[in-house]
Design goal:
The complex is a heterotrimer.
Chain A (H helix, E strand, L loop, with lengths): L1 H18 L8 H13 L5 H8 L1 H12 L5 E9 L7 H12 L5 E9 L3 H11 L5 E4 L4 H5 L9 H5 L1 H11 L3 E2 L2 E2 L2 E2 L7 E7 H6 L10 H14 L4 E3 L17 E5 L2 E4 L8 E2 L4 H16 L14 H7 L2 E8 L3 H9 L3 E5 L4 E2 L1 H5 L2 E3 L7 H13 L1 H9 L7 E4 L4 E3 L26 E2 L6 H11 L1 E2 L13 H19 L5 H15 L1 H18 L2
Parallel strand pairs in A: 1-2, 1-3, 8-12, 14-19, 17-18
Antiparallel strand pairs in A: 3-15, 4-5, 6-15, 7-12, 7-13, 9-10, 10-11, 16-17
Chain B lengths: L1 H33 L3 H7 L11 H7 L2 H34 L6 H13 L4 H11 L7 H4 L7 H14 L2 H9 L4 H12 L1 H17 L2 H6 L8 H17 L16 H24 L8 H5 L1
Chain C lengths: L1 H9 L1 H22 L7 E2 L10 E2 L6 H4 L4 H32 L3 H12 L6 H12 L5 H8 L14 H26 L3 H9 L4 H25 L7 H6 L8 H4 L2 H9 L5 H29 L7
Antiparallel strand pairs in C: 1-2
Helix pairs in contact in C: 4-8, 5-8, 8-10, 10-14
Classes of the chains: A alpha/beta, B mainly alpha, C mainly alpha.
Amino acid sequence: MKKKLAMMLGMTLIIGTLAGCGSTGDTGTAADTEPAAEQTDSGQGTDAGVDAATESDAASETDSVLKDGNMVTLKVVCPGGTASPGSKGEVEAAINEIIAPYMDAQIEFEFLEWGVFQEQKNLILSSGEDYSLVFTFDSSRNYAMSHQVLDITDLLPVYAPGLTEEMGTYFDACKIGGRLYGVPTFHEYASRHGITGMTSVLNELSIDPESIQSWEDVDAMLAKVHEAHPEMNCLVPVDTNMILSGAWSNASISKIIDGVGVYAEGDPLDVVNIYATPEYMEEVAKRAYDWNQKGYVIADASTIPEARQELLAAGNSFAFCGGIHPGTKTQEAKNAGVDVTTMPIDRAVLNTSSVDFAQYMVPTACSTPEKAVKLLDLMYTDPDIVNLISYGIEGKDYEIKDAERNIIGYPEGVDSSNVGWNNETWLVGNGELGYVWETDDPDIWEQYRELNENSVKSCIFGFTFDPQNVKTQVTAIQNVISKYGATIGCGYADPEESVAKFVEELEAAGINDVIAEAKTQIQAWMEENG
Amino acid sequence: MRKKELSYQILFNVVMAAFSVLILLPLLLLFVASFTDNSEIILRGYSFFPHQLSLSAYGYIWQEKAQIFSAYFITIAVTFVGTSVGLIISVMYAYALSKPYFPGKRFFSLYILFTMLFNGGLVPTYIMYTRYLHMKNTIFALILPALLMNAFNVLLIRSYFNNNVPASLVEAARIDGATEMQTLVRVVVPVSKPIIVTIGLFIGLAYWNDWQNGLYYVTKPELYSVQQILNNMLRNIEYLTKNSSAVQKSTTLAGSLPAATVRMAIAVVGMLPILVIYPFVQKYFVRGIALGAVKE
Amino acid sequence: MKNKKVKIKRYLPVYFMLLPGFLYLLVNNYIPMAGLIIAFKNLDFSVGILRSEWTGFKNFEFLFRTPDAWRITRNTIGYNTVFIIVNLVVAVLFAVLLSEIHSKKAVKTYQTIILLPYMVSMVIVSYLAYAFLAGDTGLLNGIRHSLGLEPVSWYSEPKYWPVILTLVNAWKGVGYGAVIYLASILGIDRSLYEAAAVDGIGKMQEIRYITLPLIKPTVITMLLLSIGRVFYSDFGLFYQVPMNSGALIDVTNTIDTYVYRGLIALGDISMSSAAGVYQSVIGFLLVIAANWITNKLSKENALF
């Protein structure tokens, strides 16, 4: 009796829970955009045509949607240093004033602390809560494939024309099956692989950083440092616990998914097992082994828990290899508390992943996607909003130091520990529109733009791999890479022997299936994109 | 006889003392490390006898003092309410299961056992508590999910009731006309103090140590518990040191951060409560409930 | 029918006592359990979990169709078996000793110390382990050095790790078990010991013939409960403590770490859910089997 009752009760609740998961009831709009999106999927050209024809009606139509008299709260999820910065209320109020003429909406930030951002963000995206914009700094691919976020391709030109114009060239990188599920923020996309070392050591041994142009030069430099300071760790690992980080391949190989890639300027259909290439053998396995044998590498490099900036700050380490862009010097120096010099070596290549990793997405459960997209538009085009989101309130959180060059800094008595607002300029939308912090190069944004524009574009720039059919192989491959990647990348294993075993296990894990699948998908992508 | 007893006491104490020292050594290292200079740890490694002491790790935690104090209030409230309610419903469930017979006993045993083996996973649970019970960013989200009652505790209490509480005692109470509730409260609970205190301790520790509910359901700092602050701190450090290229301006965590020692200090701060509370709890860990005497 | 009603009425107070727990488990465990169907679906959040497309057992494939399947299963079960036995033996030993020691102060001190490691999170434990095992700055190699021995590169030598992991696990978990067994010993009828003392039985016999047999039910309960979890592993212990060292993967990769490593890039909820279902089902079958055996041997100690 009781059992039956319990079961019935359970079932009703269960059905309620699950059915409600996806769509959020009263909003027709979120659901409506989807079939529309699918219809236009077939013809690429038609998009523009339709837009042009309806342009005259568009203005009044967007107005009626945005100024519908329904005051909604647009919740924006971002990572941040603290969950409730002191100026939050003031910044929100100031932004509300700016957006009021455009739409009936208010903004509310929800900052998730860096260390817990991934988990909390993923929960928000899977739960069907009504959020308007969610930031991500891993590609939108996984969210798009499980439809946790909306396809905003058709909303963008209508509700965010300014944004489309501003960022249009970079949209290509974020498209998944020709559709957009997120908008990348503007920042430095490309980076050059190279070495970053302590300025003090360079000066002491009078090494001219300009003279370090090739990996042979690096080798010679390390030899010199090692000779002068045998007690010093010449090389410490970077984020991935590798001496030669994952960035090694960027110069020549574009990664499709871990372990699989193509040559950046080669034939896109020539998909290879990255770890079986001569480049991996020469530039990673052999070089790391050589350096390790010569005693340049810190002990326990593949497992050491301390981060590079701690190691540099402690004063017994010289350098690390990794990606370098114009902001690297300031940023590493600040993090380590010591002066460092960057020596870029490889060329910069623009890959899909260089652009698509930092994006704003509109969750499927968002009740007013049009307003969310309009807000995005303003975040990429309105300098006042950009400054508010980047730096907070003028006079309180920052003050103008040099009006002519748009340089700002902390006011008297304010520093990083007590400032009411602290945000990253690369997650603002288009930080280029705003002020420049006094510790950065005044022309930092021009440098970024230059770097982005002068990078070599990979032959599969804009292609995103769909792992759906080869998930089993991908999980097995990931495990094999965990086994060998760092050990070889730190030079702890004899290159010939270990790389052969590595490749053998990758093949057993099914890497050839992934390669075949990638070929098929790239072929289709190429046909679609001419 | 007495002499023999004495030699046993010496033997037992020596064995326990030896194990205690072994267990304590890593903790001592942890404690010392939290007072060591960060650079020394990186250059020379951890040591029981550091050359340079430093309070900077605690100074770093102390920056958050305002928040930590209000978080203590949350933690204490949550622990108190959660432990009391959790213990009561666990003991009642266990007592019912310890009955020799009632219709549906097998169902209720399996019902609780099942929850130990199967769970719906994080996403469905999260949806349940946030979308249907609207508990996100409320204090209930720190009390209800996952911690209030678990099969493990209930089955341990049941096992104790079954094996250490004489059936004759319960029977006698029933004959005296006591209701089930009275029997439980007046007869069974008093002779089961060791297990009830033990399980209460475990529930209490689970609440005190919990940061997961906070991680999943709380994003408003006003509701942070102590462990959530400490855990966020720990994770922010891990994250920021490993992904420093992503984070340029959140400078509160810049190079001067004594990461290695802060981790240890966080662990010390997290362990303090047990050192404070445990002696009080141990009062109940006494033998000498001579049931033979009660029976008569 | 009437008879049944009378019966139900008679047991009403018992049901009343079960009710709060019953409702809690319903909300906290059973309703979300419906989410297990995620494991059999290709999740599409735009239509909701219920209407997502069924994929049968496709999400489970990655657990079996891999050259590592055997190794991760062996590691998971192997370590758990060793952990269960070692922790049981040491915890019972501690509990017995603690119950026999007369000095209250000493008992309190020991008891506090053995429970302390339980409070330390695995992340911290991994740093402590590193303090001992680091290649050039570690304490163990320091000791080896002073003894004139060659340093060992602990994080690249798989052969030491089964022992290291067992020690770390025991260090962290033994206190918990010991407190439970101690509670159980303290609940033993005091008069039994008094009678034994009158008969002039020695201490060792007393432990052997009174204490151990009387805590057997608790031991059996604990065993049955841990058998249900032999397909699970402590992620922190197997991933963080070995510092995710590639050289150790053959002896440290378990089902949980394999799933974690494999799904970092895919972020696939259905697949991780499938792994959970797999672990639960096996655990369930093992508990059923173990309980069946217990029922045969000592009926009163069975779980159901």
